[in-house]
Structures are given as C-alpha cells and as structure tokens.
Amino acid sequence: MSLWTGAEAAAATGGELRGDWAVNGVSIDTRTIEQGDLFVALKDVRDGHEFVAAALEKGAGAALVSRVPEGVAEDAPLLIVDDVLSGLEALGAAARARTQAKVIGITGSVGKTSTKEMLLAMLSAQGRTHASVASYNNHWGVPLTLARMPADSEYAIIEMGMNHPGEILPLTMLAKPDAAMITTVAAAHLEAFDDITGIALEKASIFDSLPIGAPAVYNADVETSAILASKTHDRRLHGIAFGENGFDWKLKELTIQGDTTIVQAEFDDKPLLFKLATPGRHFAMNGLGALAIVQAIGADLAQAIAVLGRWTPYKGRGLREVIQLDPTESRERLSLIDDSYNANPTSMAASLEVLAGAETTDGVGRIGKGRRIAFLGDMKELGADDVALHAGIAHLEATKALDVVHCVGPLMRALYDLLPEHQRGDWFETSEEMCQGLRHRIDAGDVVLAKGSLSMKLGLVVDAIRKMGHPITDV
C-alpha cells in the first residue's frame, strides 16, 4: 500500500497532477532520498527545484514543485502547486485528517526531542507509531512529519519548536494533537522574547488546538508553571502537572547508580518506580512526563515502564559511550558523554550535574587518576544577558565538582576567565582549534562531556575523541 497516490496528493493540495504515480515516502533532501519517495522542492539556502532532476534520477517517484524545473521532462511525474511549502502543509493536513492515530504534541525549551524518542520507544511496543525524525520541529519539519505519516498509524508524536513569538500556534493547529506536553520552560531564544514569561506563553499555545477535556501535561517545577496551568484551565483541558511539585505525577526520590537512574514517584497517590538506562535528573523528569502522557491516552503503563528502562539517548543528545583507547589493554578506556547538539543554561546545568556525578577510573592511563572533564561551547540566542549567563556556569555546584573545563567560543571566555587555576583548561575560538592536540587533554579513566550550541560544532570534538579508539557498545 502506497503512502500517497498522485490523485490523493493532488486532491489534498489542489495541485496539477502530471503522470500517474504513487509514492512510499516524502523527502526534502536528495542526499537521503529513497526509491519511491516524493521529493519536495522546498526553497531554503538553495532552491529545491535545482535538485529535482537529480532526485528523479536517484529513484524518486515524483516531485512536488511550483514549476517544471530545468532539465526535467514535461512528462515527468510531478505535482505542480502555487507554493511548495503551502503544498506540503496541505499534504500534512490531509494526512492528519485521514488517520485515526492518537496524536501527541511535544514542545519545551529543553528535552522535547529526548521525550519524543522516549514516547516513540514506549508506544512502538504497543502499536504502529509515527514520529518526527531528528529535530524536524519547525515550519517545514512539522508538515513534513505529518505528510510522512501512514494512514494506519495508531500513535503519532509530533515535536514542535520555536525561535520567535507566534511560531507554535500554526504548528499545533496543523497537527491537531489529541494530547500535548510541555517538557519545561527555560531561558532559550531570549533574543526574541522580553523575558521568560513570553517564552512560557508561547510554549503554552501548544494547548490551544486541543479539544475540550484533552490531556495537557506540563512541568510543575518551572517558575512559570502558573502560566501553563492557567492555559489548561482557560481551555477547559485535563491539566496534568508533573515534577517535584507535580499535583498528579510527583517525583519523590531520584538515585543515580552508575549509568542507571532510579526514580521513585507517585501517580494518583500511589507509588510508582521506574528506571532509565542513562544517568540524569533531566532524563528522569522527561520520563515522568512521558509516562503521564502514556497513561493519559490509555496506553499500557506497565509495558511503557519496562520499555523506558531500556531507553538511552542518541547521538548529540546525551549519548554515553565507552571509548577503548588501546585495543590490547581492556582498562585503557574513557567514558564520553555526547551532548553536542544543543545548549542553554538549563540543559547545560543538567549535563554538568551528570558529569559531576559520574564515576571515574583510577590506576590507568598516563596520569593514573580519572578526571571529570568538560568541553563547553557557546550557548546561542540568549539575548542581552548572554555573557552573564555564561559566567554564571562557574558558580554551579556541579561545575565546582569538575576537574578540568575547556571552553570554546567568545561567550565561553566569560566562564573561562572565572575558573580557578586548578580547573582552567584551554580556551579556543573554535572547535576545530580545540581538536588540535586533543589527545593530550584527555586520558584513560576520564569521563568527558562535550556540550554547546550546534553552531559551535562540539560534535567535531566528540568525533575526534571517538577516532582515538573505538566505541564499545556492549557495556
């Protein structure tokens, strides 16, 4: 069964159909396009129409365009619309309208991708589940995710992000979730908002398209929780608060044992115990909220808890792995925490807390004493207080517990200059510079964290560390 026939896509978009075709997927990137995909010629840095011919040559079943591109035959399988993005949105709306899936919307300043991945794992064990790929959560990512949704999906998880006011509402109106969750509200994208209240109001707009009585899950521990609660009341929703201050799902106690997080919580005044196969209070909080969603939509809670116990974050989102530095010496290894995809003050504090609590190994390597080492890059889009927010990292208890802190970027210079001499590592303008001589900054027995905003390219540091040995996946 195809995902879209040409006739169905034409009816959804009102476009002009060229040829009789059917497609099994939807793609916006010729580098990852698969046989039988519909190629969507979006305009971004470059005009997607420039790549239509290449997409068809690679096996695309058809292309969604606003004109017949150069080098493409007049009888090529096309769907011609007035505007490609609007066409994609129409396709996404039609996909949403034809499915009986329970659709979950996820947003938050931190943790939305990890929470989406938790829900994907838990619900996939209970039915056909569709979800956003990577962090496809913006004005094209949400309609693309919807357009890719098979009609027979039973669950769908749609991640929604924002950089500026007014971006969440059109996304949630398109996705029309049956339930929604706000992971947290924190100082992120402050350049575009007057204060954190504005961010809370923007995040709360994900609840605006929910039907009356629908589950609206939110973090009760944030300073703006009253704004989130007020929105659930105003919209006559089933507000569900989670966290240490949660009225419904209450975090009681958290214990980290090695790479395992053990959480004791309460739901409906009854004890609830669950585990995660990764360390971190922030992951525990996301897991608690995700379980609240699972229960609220009627899925099996016990089965979800069992699956959650095996979940681990993926590359760039807190993935933890062991790097074997010497193939002949099994103890010559270090632990690497890859959190290089994004950063803001809240997520930075959470990651540093994980590093501060990590177990090192003594008696190995050239130094003989395991260290907790951080490679930290600039946190972007923090507005006028960006320098102060970077400097503030120096005063965190977790930071004080570290052995060495290396800094990347002009904003991180504010932190670097405040570090005491015994903690101060190296500072460089770029990650490329930090990668030079990297082997001398780390050693066997260390636990190493890399974190910064994506544009700082801390992933280069992560990849360089991986190339010093080989990852061990069975630990």
TrEMBL record:
Alphabetically, the GO molecular function entries are:
ATP binding; UDP-N-acetylmuramoyl-tripeptide-D-alanyl-D-alanine ligase activity; UDP-N-acetylmuramoylalanyl-D-glutamyl-2,6-diaminopimelate-D-alanyl-D-alanine ligase activity
Query: Start and end of every Mur ligase C-terminal domain?
Result: 332-453
Domain Mur ligase central residues, every copy = 106-293
Binding of ATP occurs at 108-114
Catalytic activity annotation: D-alanyl-D-alanine + UDP-N-acetyl-alpha-D-muramoyl-L-alanyl-gamma-D-glutamyl-meso-2,6-diaminopimelate + ATP = UDP-N-acetyl-alpha-D-muramoyl-L-alanyl-gamma-D-glutamyl-meso-2,6-diaminopimeloyl-D-alanyl-D-alanine + ADP + phosphate + H(+)
SUPFAM superfamilies for the chain: MurD-like peptide ligases, catalytic domain (SSF53623), MurD-like peptide ligases, peptide-binding domain (SSF53244), MurE/MurF N-terminal domain (SSF63418)
Top EC class, one word? ligase
- Tell me the Pfam families matching this sequence: Mur_ligase, Mur_ligase_C, Mur_ligase_M
The Mur ligase N-terminal catalytic domain extends over: 23-82
Q: What is the name of this protein?
A: UDP-N-acetylmuramoyl-tripeptide--D-alanyl-D-alanine ligase
Q: Which gene encodes it?
A: murF
